[in-house]
Design a protein that fits this description.
Blueprint: H1 6-10, E1 19-20, E2 23-24, E3 26-27, H2 38-50, H3 61-80, E4 89-92, H4 95-110, E5 116-120, H5 129-138, E6 141-145, H6 156-163, E7 169-173, H7 185-194, E8 198-202, H8 214-217, E9 221-225, E10 236-240, H9 242-247, E11 258-261, E12 266-268, H10 282-298, H11 300-319, E13 324-326, E14 340-345, H12 350-359, E15 362-363, E16 365-367, H13 372-378, E17 384-388, H14 395-411
Parallel strand pairs: 3-15, 5-6, 5-7, 7-8, 8-9
Antiparallel strand pairs: 1-2, 4-10, 9-10, 11-12, 13-14, 14-17, 16-17
Helix pairs in contact: 2-10, 3-10, 4-5, 11-14, 12-14
The structure holds pyridoxal-5'-phosphate.
């Protein structure tokens, strides 16, 4: 498949040897969090066993080694998304934390009463709530670009209408975690910039699965989470250009983010450290570096091609099953769809679907997927079931999911 040897890759993921309810674990919930290869696990273990020390401060060997490994990870992250230098990479807790940092620091400084903030109906809560809170504090207006009637992509008229309100910031997801839609961020950011807006790209679901280039996308801010990219949890990226970061005030005060502290005042450290107060998630950063190395060794274009094939294969199968509906782009239009398939089985609650899948060892997610405005107000559903793919999934995994759909239908007598 697209030059990816999935059976070999599976061997790197110890958890895939688990047996659940007498069946091999088929993990189809990578949009929630990814599994971790032994290369990442061993890198973290190696840090704990051989050079565990705090960074920046120590003038001794193992502290220098830890500092270097942490900064190396930032260098790798910078290269991975094509930023100009690691100074433009701030490590946060996760993508959510990164968006909040922008809303609280840049937003607090730049958003005024009556300003427009533009997001869309397909955003994750983490790209809705921080803007709602900011809008409320400032008396600004939060605008939602509509999803089109066939539930595939952002509605072009609604997009144009909202851009014409000249928003101060446009914050959009590159890939929807429910529909799998890949938005045309490049085109939208060109339009947004021509009206003077800043652009924040939520790359939580794109960065793990396809080549990402913040310059090509025209992203002023870009966020992602390590745990969805084969790396450890508790570590996120915030990218912004040096110029933007220099102008933003720090959010959290404390150690490491200062240059000098006097009784009355303090001065700030250089970027990116100005935004990283207190002891960093050192093992998280080092593990994330190993995850990026692993992804690079497979190749992001190959990962994207592999997931396209798997998604097309899964959709073709699902579309052939009566009374099952998949949302977003169909099998014959996979160009702008990532490896995320939300679906429903007529007359069966999505939570029951996920429970029956689990009885066959197939892990999928059911619920509103932290996208209530999309699931409840656009799809008009209480919940959907969702399967999502990654490099360690193959056609056999899809076959197991399809069997679980058939089993569900039989149990609920929906044939
Ligand atoms: C599109 C999107 N944005 C943001 C997030 C938030 O990521 P995290 O929980 O790692 O902050 C998610 C998580 O599922 C997501 O799917």
């Amino acid at each position: 498949m697209a030059g990816i040897d999935v059976s070999k890759i599976k061997q790197d993921f110890p958890i895939l040897n688990r047996v659940i309810n007498g069946k091999r674990l088929v993990y189809l919930d990578s949009a929630a969090t990814s599994q971790k290869p032994k290369q990442v696990i061993e890198k973290i273990k190696d840090y704990y066993e051989n050079y565990n020390a705090n960074i920046h401060r120590g003038i001794y060997k193992i502290s220098e080694e830890a500092t270097e490994a942490y900064i190396d990870s930032k260098r790798a992250a910078s290269k991975f998304i094509n930023s100009s230098s690691y100074n433009e990479i701030i490590y946060t807790k996760n993508a959510t934390d990164s968006i909040n940092l922008v809303a609280l620091s840049w937003g607090e400084q730049n958003i005024k009463s009556g300003d427009h903030i533009m997001i869309s109906e397909m955003e994750h809560h983490s790209n809705i709530v921080p803007w709602q809170m900011l809008a409320k504090r400032k008396g600004a207006v939060l605008d939602f670009v509509r999803v089109n009637d066939d539930l595939t992509s952002l509605d072009k008229d609604s997009l144009a209408e909202n851009l014409d309100k000249c928003p101060k910031i446009v914050a959009l997801t590159q890939v929807s975690n429910v529909l799998g839609t890949i938005n045309d961020i490049r085109g939208i950011s060109r339009e947004a910039h021509s009206r003077g807006a800043m652009v924040l790209v939520d790359g939580a679901q794109s960065t793990p699965h396809m080549p990402v280039d913040v310059k090509d996308l025209g992203a002023d801010f870009f966020v992602a989470s390590s745990h969805k990219m084969l790396g450890p949890a508790g570590l996120g990226i915030l990218y912004a250009s040096s110029k933007v970061l220099e102008e933003m005030p720090p959010l959290i005060g404390g150690g490491d983010m200062i240059l000098t502290v006097e009784k009355e005042r303090s001065t700030w450290n250089t970027i990116p450290w100005k935004f990283e107060a207190g002891t960093a998630n050192i093992e998280g950063g080092i593990g994330f570096g190993a995850a990026i190395e692993y992804l690079n060794s497979v190749g992001m274009s190959r990962i994207r091609e592999h997931e396209k094939e798997i998604t097309r294969y899964a959709l073709e199968m699902i579309e052939g099953i009566k009374n099952v509906r998949a949302y977003g782009y169909p099998a014959n239009n996979i160009k702008d769809k990532a490896g995320v398939i939300s679906f429903t089985i007529d007359g069966v609650h999505p939570h029951d679907v996920a429970t029956i899948f689990d009885s066959d060892g197939v892990a999928i997610r059911a619920g509103h997927h932290c996208a209530m405005p999309l699931v409840k107000s656009v799809l008009h559903l209480p919940a959907v079931s969702r399967m999502s793919f990654y490099i360690y999934n193959d056609e056999r995994d899809v076959d197991a999911a399809v069997e679980a759909i058939k089993k569900t239908k039989t149990i609920f007598k929906k044939v």
